[in-house]
Design brief:
Distance between the termini: 42 Å
Number of helices: 13
Shape: globular
Largest sheet: 7 strands, mixed
Strand content: 5-15%
Helix content: 25-40%
Length: 513
């Protein structure tokens, strides 16, 4: 049975390679100390590990190591910045370097689909209206996805109270169809922005969140490719009607609108040519950004940080999610992104409209991963915004049932994946976990195989620890040794359980709490 080491070695080598990509990107520093920390130093509290809220507002200008005797205050992951300043990542021992906000004329729409989020949505809206992005270029669209609580009332009341004082365009839409995917589609189709950002109602964003995303598209400086991509100033633009509109027959938008020819602003509907791209369906022109030396991305992914709650299952979920986030970043930086999270991503509106028909409308979710795959198939470029300003934070699931439901829902889409990189990673992970389980069963049946499970666990735990530790430390947390070891022991069985449950839609809804 020693041949079972082969899939485990292949998986572990792949994870180690991804860790090397992240290490190389961070300049070769040690994991967790790589100059990419999302917090500006470590906060020491007597008798603790500094595990308070990552979103506690910090005092402006406080950077480096902070010791606050007798207090629970912690430097914020998404700390408030000075007006007109976005956070730049600081190297170890260096003071955080403020980066002036770029001049921009890119119109941005934030689209959030909400369902029964009465307790969370107001907090998110408060953060969104505090963005350092120009209010005249910002639009907020909240789409009520058939909530049964007071979510739409809370949103409406907030918008009425803040619309005039903020100068931000805010709209509440009602999704006539079931599902988040249709809600997002409605929001994008009714948007006036050139760039779409998405997040979830239970997330919290920092004041530089929008600016951090915009900067990945060339910063929006007048005359740069970042502006031209959205404004249609480039030669060779597509003619109206050169693309098939996904709006046809779905009840969204105005009759006859097409993805290539329509733009909305405060003055009404205006025709505007969009770039024709490479003729590959990516929605982008493959332009070179002189400031970065690379292509302007079709979409940008960014970090999602989970706050651990109490108990083992919460930490288990955070460790697994941290590994997924690290893989997301590493594969995106390698040019072969395999996963993403709609809680923190952005894309040109025209890119979404171009690929909207490829998002598997027969499935209730997958608005993020299927868009990623469609962009990849079309030859589009996917970027990653790794700064602290670009990160969002959310709470982790606290019970095994809630975590299992969430993971089974995510895994249920895997049967529809066609992206080669994603399928290779999924196959390697499944083979590794199946090998570990087989070794454990073999050891239980025959004592001669008792050393085998230990060897397999040791091989896979080392790269897992490296990649998870790097991501955990960036958020100011530390890995607890006992929960981590237990998580590693349990994970192969957890993985297979999730895979089996994902095959049965009814079983994915167990434990309705």
């Amino acid at each position: 049975m020693w041949w079972l080491t082969i899939p485990v070695i292949i998986y572990s080598a792949g994870i180690f390679f991804l860790w090397l990509i992240l290490r190389r990107h961070s300049g070769g520093a040690a994991p967790g100390d790589d100059g990419l920390s999302w917090v500006t130093g470590e906060v020491a509290t007597p008798g603790g590990q500094g595990n308070g809220s990552l979103l506690t507002e910090s005092r402006p200008g406080v950077t480096g190591e902070v010791a606050i005797p007798g207090a629970e205050e912690q430097v914020s992951l998404l700390s408030e910045n000075r007006p007109g300043i976005t956070s730049a990542v600081a190297s170890p021992g260096e003071e955080e370097r403020p980066t002036p906000l770029p001049e921009t004329d890119i119109r941005v729409t934030v689209v959030v689909a909400v369902r029964n989020e009465e307790r969370n949505v107001t907090t998110l809206l408060e953060r969104l209206v505090q963005q350092d992005y120009p209010s005249g270029l910002l639009e907020l669209i909240i789409v009520n996805d058939n909530s049964t609580d007071r979510t739409p009332v809370a949103v409406s009341e907030f918008m009425e109270a803040h619309r005039d004082s903020t100068g931000i365009s805010m709209r509440l839409l009602f999704n006539p169809f079931p599902g988040k995917k249709k809600a997002i589609r409605l929001g994008v189709s009714r948007s006036s922005g050139d760039l779409i950002l998405t997040t979830d109602a239970d997330c919290t964003v920092g004041p530089g969140w929008i600016s951090a995303h915009v900067s990945e598209y060339g910063g929006g400086v007048e005359g740069s490719p970042g502006t031209q991509i959205f404004s249609g100033q480039l030669q060779g633009s597509a003619t109206a009607g050169s693309q098939t509109s996904f709006l046809r027959g779905d009840g969204f938008g105005k009759s006859g609108e097409t993805a290539s020819s329509v733009s909305r602003d405060g003055s009404g509907v205006t025709a505007r040519p969009l770039i024709s791209g490479r003729g590959d369906g990516s929605g982008m022109a493959g332009l070179q950004d002189p400031s970065s030396g690379g292509e302007i991305p079709s979409m940008v992914l960014a970090p999602v940080v989970q706050r651990p709650g109490r108990g083992f299952w919460s930490r288990f979920g955070v460790y697994e999610f941290s590994a997924l986030q690290a893989i997301t970043e590493a594969t995106a930086r390698a040019g072969h992104p395999v996963m993403c999270n709609a809680a923190n991503m952005s894309y040109a509106r025209q890119v979404y409209l171009r690929h909207a028909g490829e998002l598997h409308d027969d499935l209730p979710s997958g608005d993020d991963i299927f868009l990623l795959h469609a962009v990849r198939r079309g030859g589009g470029t996917v970027g990653f915004a790794g700064s602290s300003a670009a990160a969002v934070e959310t709470a982790a699931a606290v019970t095994a049932a809630a975590l299992l439901r969430q993971r089974a829902r995510w895994a249920s889409k895997a049967w529809y994946y066609r992206d080669p990189s994603t399928l290779i990673l999924a196959a390697a992970t499944a083979a590794c976990n199946a090998a570990v389980i087989a070794a454990a069963v073999g050891a239980a049946v025959s004592p001669q195989y008792l050393p085998l499970p230990g060897v397999l666990y040791a091989i896979r735990t080392v790269p897992d620890h490296l990649i998870i530790t790097r991501n955990i430390k960036k958020s100011g947390e530390k890995i607890a040794p006992v929960p981590f070891v237990l998580s590693e022991l349990l994970y192969p069985f957890w993985f297979m359980t999730v895979a089996v449950i994902s095959l049965f839609p009814k079983s994915r809804r167990f434990g309705t709490g």
